[in-house]
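User: I would dearly like some help making sense of a protein record. I have put the entry right below:
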Amino acid sequence: MSDVHRARVGLRSALASGERLTGVFVKLPCPDVLELAAAAGFDFVVIDLEHSVLGEAEAFTLLRYADALGLPALVRLARVDPPLVNRVLEAGAVGIQLSMLTSVAQREELQAAVSYGPVGRRSVSLGHVGAGYGATGLRGYLDAERAAPPVLVGQIESRTVDPVQEVVAGLDVAFVGTTDLTVALGLDPDDAAAIRAEVDAVAEAAAGAAVSFGGWAPRPDAAEGLGLGPARYLVVGSDLQFLGAALRAAAPPSSPETR
């Protein structure tokens, strides 16, 4: 079993135990960010191919560096693109975080893209880190994939076509995208009670589907106020967000002449 498979087992075991896992979005093409995240004690990172200027090659470099650090890395995608899904998994991603999940059909499309036949439609290669670049052989690699398939996170960020509980069934994490959900539903960003009700509905659906609940918060101490107290998969901020906050805090006060 490769390090990638062991990382998947570790994440799932932690989620099953009720432990909270905390990660951060990575939007900058800088391996130092991964080293800093690992040193700070984050449990995982999510390399963001939805809301960033990262290119595929840069994402693949980050994935390989994360694997070398022993830091589990998922990849966030805006849609199910089977060839891209295959490439990021072969580059060492422990899983896929899919944005704007709205239907059972979309969830099944994701499951098919990460699974080999006869269950799924993923194309097979042994020339990558998860297969030991061929050292494990086909049988050994397929056995490892069956024992530790990619971790799947689905983001609920709008009204779903099918009931949320059915949409997230079979995933590892039902992740509430609070900001997008607020905008998509036309909620008042200052109406905390209305937003909290939507977050609670996703949490209830996750519990009903026997999957872990997750979400995003700007900081760990903000999770409770956002309804993410029961979240077992928490993404806090992003490298870009934290850099911006640090630069603003360090900036000299502007003079009247420069205002």
